[in-house]
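Pasting two entries for a bug report.
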Amino acid sequence: NSGQISILSNHIYDNSTFEKYNYTGININTTNSGGHIIRGNYIGGSAPFASGSKFNMQLATISNILFYGIYYSSNASGQPSVISGNVIKNINIPNYTLYQTYFSGIYVNNGSNHKVFIGEENKGNIIGDSSDTTSIYLDGWGVDHILFYTNGAGLS
């Protein structure tokens, strides 16, 4: 990747019956640029605005189940990047007793050279839905759920 990437106001959902066991809604993985913006996106459900029926993860092969709503990784210097105003909800990961389940709403893995702003004033990220306690439903053996993960020195 090179140059600044803006991912703005998208609706990422799935109403198919295809099996999915490794899923990333938005993925930026770069070593040579900064100043990226991920803002105002909806991830989950089967229709726009993460609405409709739940986005269902399904076991396709003998494998663990992995879900990243937003995955961001950069060790670039330059302008700070921003992840704000995103909504991740309406997701179902069922029980598969032999395989582990990993869920991360927003995963940031950045090096010490790069600064990332998570949320802005009046534009925080929302993971789940306060009016629906099953908005993100994880059921299974070895469930590892992280709503927000960071690894790096340049976070704000």
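Entry 2 (this is the one that rendered wrong in the viewer):
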Amino acid sequence: RAHYFLQAIQSIPALPDGLSGALPPAVNVENTDQIAALNPDQLRTCLSLIESHTGRMPVIYTNQASWNQLPTPQPWAARHPLWVAHWTDAPEPLLPRDWSTYWLWQYSQTDGRPFGVQSAQIDLNRFKNPVGALREAPNNSSNIHDANTVRAFTD
């Protein structure tokens, strides 16, 4: 899967204004069927391959229920920034074991039209540290300027 991912990202065009690569690569670990068959050593190898080929620390996208299905704690995972999925109105998300904080939190899925998006459903995300989030993105070398608020929208 790492090789497929690396092939796929080679065809992504650069973003304007020096933002190319502002967000690090992310590996999705949330599907219940995937978790049951997941070999944590293979995931660790996959993340290492992506990091060595991109020069960027990959983010792990998961949620508490999925990640905690792994049979044992994976302390090495905390080395990777956490993009946690937890749709709630609570002030903070529930974190999977192995992390004490998050980098990015997907807190809601909502109608995208008020945001100018034609999709009926978009995921809303917030950074733990909105002002420095892109500047402090794992291994980010892009020229990112401070902003008062940063929101990431994903399909």
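Dev reply: Rendering is fixed now. As a check, the viewer should reflect this: DSSP finds four helices and six strands in the chain.
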